[in-house]
Design goal:
Elements: H1 24-36, H2 43-46, E1 51-55, E2 58-61, E3 66-69, H3 72-75, H4 84-94, H5 106-118, E4 127-131, H6 136-151, E5 155-159, H7 168-173, H8 177-180, E6 190-193, H9 204-216, E7 225-230, H10 246-256, E8 260-264, H11 279-282, E9 288-291, E10 304-308, H12 327-342, H13 345-364, E11 370-376, E12 379-384, H14 392-403, E13 406-407, E14 409-411, E15 417-420, H15 428-446
Helix pairs in contact: 4-12, 5-12, 9-10, 13-15, 14-15
């Protein structure tokens, strides 16, 4: 029997319902936030909205405006906001106990088994899972320790355009200088190689040659890396899908140099790309996968790393974190995977993603500012030719979408990529309506006349 409710019943509505935005209550709460919250707060500066509640692929603000959510908390709500099947299990668990460090529980062990069953390649049946801190950055920190511990080396190799988080080790691997300004020095002997894609004029052979030299050139100027950290599809870098052969080439370089290959699937994992993991699109099995975001099912924080059992060389306490026993989040993760399985959401994400990209491809025939449309599943990026301030056009598109009831976000090295990561439970009608709003926002922003 299919696990319910069906996706059509998860939302406030099939269409947005927006009056004047921001409304007075949102303005009041945003102003209050400015007075007492950190100056590091960013999102309300671009989308001035104060949230009241959310269901499925819809959110409602403090003034009662209903938006279609093509943002999903940066890809956290893969099965939608407040999914009843997920929350049922979470609520039941909250009434029992919530925090267990790493003592065994049914939920912890069941989630580990579930992750093993959906793992790519030969990780399935041969994996171990470790829970550290509750974020993607924490998962990356654990992977750094694992690579160093298993290779005896401390150097690291990441990629231009990469985003892996903002804690010390993760920030070292992150490529964007804006996140690093004022925080140097970070971890030593870390290098970044080109990430190949048609949009940045870097080919697979060129990129792999650069990676190989970082390992094999005796005069390379740094220690041989302990591992290669890569997003199989870059997120913040602009939803960049690598050219065929790149990830396979990285697997070969890692094997040839006794290094670990770590896939950062914090944003792409748990069905986002129409496969359980983006690795599945390329037929490449990494040594380790970091995950977080959608792993908790309902938005509860949980970070984890799955890795091949041959690297399980830690002793007791080799990697720890106080909140590595968030049992409600573990229950949420199990139920989210079950909901995706039983409702065919992987296949649905692939179908809807293709429809969305086809719609943008058609628009690009008339809107010459669109230079590339890319992605996998419901992980979609539309790149625009830079105009004035690099991200100015995308910000204008984002504003117009918001004013008409659709929430989208940006990405890319210059902020010139429109990024869409809606919940996998978005309906056909919601997709159609949202695409009408987004396409009209693009047309009107490009030609305001």
């Amino acid at each position: 029997m299919t696990i319910g409710p069906p996706i059509e019943e998860l939302h406030f509505s099939e269409e947005p319902d927006v009056n004047t935005v921001p409304g007075p209550n949102s303005e009041r709460l945003i102003e209050r936030q400015k007075q007492i919250d950190s100056s590091a707060v960013a999102y309300p500066n671009r989308v001035p909205i104060a949230l009241k509640d959310a269901k499925g692929a819809t959110v409602r603000d403090a003034d009662g405006n209903v938006f279609l959510d093509f943002f999903a908390g940066i890809g956290v709500l893969n099965v939608g906001h407040a999914n009843p099947y997920v929350l049922e299990g979470v609520h039941e668990q909250l009434d029992r106990y919530t925090h267990t460090v790493d003592f065994p529980t049914e939920a912890r062990l069941d989630l580990i088994d579930k992750l093993d069953s959906i793992a790519p390649g030969n990780l399935s049946g041969n994996s171990r899972v470790i829970f550290g801190g509750p974020s993607g950055s924490d998962a990356i920190e654990g992977s750094i320790k694992l690579a160093k511990h298993n290779t005896g080396r401390h150097g690291m190799l990441g990629f231009e355009g990469a985003y892996h988080g903002t804690t010390s080790g993760a920030l070292t691997l992150t490529a964007a200088k804006k996140y690093k300004a004022g925080y140097a020095p970070l971890l030593p002997d870390t290098v970044h190689a080109p990430y190949p894609a048609p949009s940045n004029d870097v080919g697979v052979e060129e990129a792999l040659d650069a990676v190989a030299r970082k390992f094999e050139d005796p005069y390379g100027g740094h220690e041989t890396p302990a591992g290669i950290w890569v997003e199989p599809i870059q997120g913040e870098g602009g939803v960049v899908v690598p050219q065929n052969g790149f990830l396979k080439g990285l697997r070969d370089v890692a094997d040839d140099n006794d290094a670990m290959l770590i896939f950062d699937e914090v944003q792409t994992g748990i069905g986002r790309t129409g496969k359980w993991f983006a690795a599945d699109h390329f037929g490449v099995t990494p040594d380790a996968i970091t995950m977080a975001k959608s792993l908790g099912g309902s938005g509860l924080p949980i970070g984890a790393m799955m890795y091949h059992e041959k690297f399980d060389t830690w002793g007791p306490g080799g990697h720890v974190g106080t909140f590595r026993g968030n049992v409600p989040a573990m229950v949420g993760g199990i139920r989210a995977i079950e909901y995706i399985e039983e409702n065919g959401l992987l296949e649905r994400a692939q179908t809807l993603g293709e429809q969305i990209r086809d719609r943008f491809d058609e628009l690009a025939e008339d809107v010459t500012e669109i230079t590339d449309v890319r992605g996998r599943g419901l992980f979609v990026g539309v790149e625009f030719r830079a105009r004035g301030d690099s991200g100015e056009l995308v910000e204008e598109i984002q504003r117009r979408c918001y004013e008409n009831g659709v929430l989208v976000w940006s990405a890319g090295r210059g902020g010139n990529v429109l990024r869409m990561i809606p919940p996998l439970v978005i309906t056909d009608r919601q997709t159609e309506v949202a695409m009408n709003v987004i396409c009209e926002a693009i047309r009107s922003a490009v030609d305001p006349q």
